[in-house]
Amino acid sequence: MDTATTPPNNLLNSPTLKSVLSPAAYGQLKLERLKRKAKSRAKLQAPADWQSWLPTLFPKLFSRPFADRHSDFWNHIDAIRPDIKPPAFFAIWSRGGGKTTNAEAAVVRLGAKEVRKFCLYVRGTQDKANESVQNIAAMLEGKVVERHYPQLASRKLGKYGNSKGWRVDTLRCANGFSVVALGLDAAVRGIKIEEFRPDVVILDDLDSSLDSPTAVNKKIDTLTKSILPAGSNDVAILGIQNLIHPGSIFSRINDGSAEFLYNRIVSGPYPAIEGLTYEQKPEGGYRITGGTATWEGQSLEVCEAQINEWGLTAFLQEAQHEVDDAPGGLFSHLEYRHCDWSEVPDLIRIAVWVDPAVTSTDQSDSMGIQADGLAADETIYRLWSWESITSPEDALRRATLKALELHALSVGVETDQGGDTWQSVYKRACEDLVKDTDYPHITPQTPLPTFQSAKAGAGHGPKAHRASLMLADYERGKIVHVRGTHRVLEKALFGFPLT
Which CATH number fits the domain that encloses residue 343? Predict the structure, then answer.
């Protein structure tokens, strides 16, 4: 018999149905009904592990593989238990890296597992907090969640069947779980729902790039005097934000200067791209020339589109956590002269120099490469700039390739570590390029740039003195930045200290 045509329970128990069917037929109907109920119950059981649970319940939101940082976050969520206060967890991730989506889904998981009763979802403004609560409501109202967790997906009803709360800023579920939106612009003290105080608090995007020091201090005051004290004894704190500026709440959390929530785990800061390099395209906009995406869901292609949609400055701040923490440097007051490649005159000399680090670990200083050209009128054209953490061999390989491209006669290394060692590294880099089939135009007969080395400051004074001489050339208009990689150079100049 087709189970789709099996009558519901109220009809199976109907005396009329019993009277018109034979005992065998009626028994068959009951058996099919029991089978259908058993099959339905089997479907209702959601996967236990979060790795399967998320794409099962929210396939459109979690279709990409998880990065290590996502795993750390979700392992922390699944370790939350009733009556046990966990350390605060702060996820400092890039914009576009799934911050808010993961935080909102975490609220649903905590409610589904029934390890928390009351979530306070806090954002910088009430409108933003309401937006997140409505996103959570949409998750709860999805058919998959309703099938697996019917009580969580249902609104809590009062004695007479009226809804007890499913508004723009409040969700109250039939299983007893509640979510309330709160903006930092709305003060709260002692918030409770029935006998429950918030036992999970989400702090999502509290900082704004426009926050003054006074505004940051006011937010911290609200957070520490109103929101955090409102939590239960076992309250779980989850923070999620990209770095906005050096004095922001999350910057203080990251650098350890925040005088609250000392028992905390900090995940990050994780940029969208490790080792990002880029250049401006002749037709406008930017292309990414190097780096490794830290999450498949925000690939290099996605990041390049974001750069050209948001703007480079916004991307570096929002997705790379590049915040200006050294205002007022030696070159920060300058208005640089720029030109396109088509406007560069004939150059009488081109040089490529490397300012190296000696290791390539995450704690190393960055390698810097600069290619400059000198015109007949003694104007210096800064042709190409590159900076990243890499090996000495790779830095010299890049410098040599750029020197060949620009027809520079030499590659130089400014170092206090002695030229002989670097000369041997340069020699290996050249030999590797000759053997590399990716560069068929480089053969044993190709005239390669000569190697030069100079100890930092030798014959020209210390770095600060040489910088002051370069500053004078900038102020006389004798240096022009060629568009393409000029932002790399200008960022480095911005951070150059006054002394």
Answer: 3.30.420.280
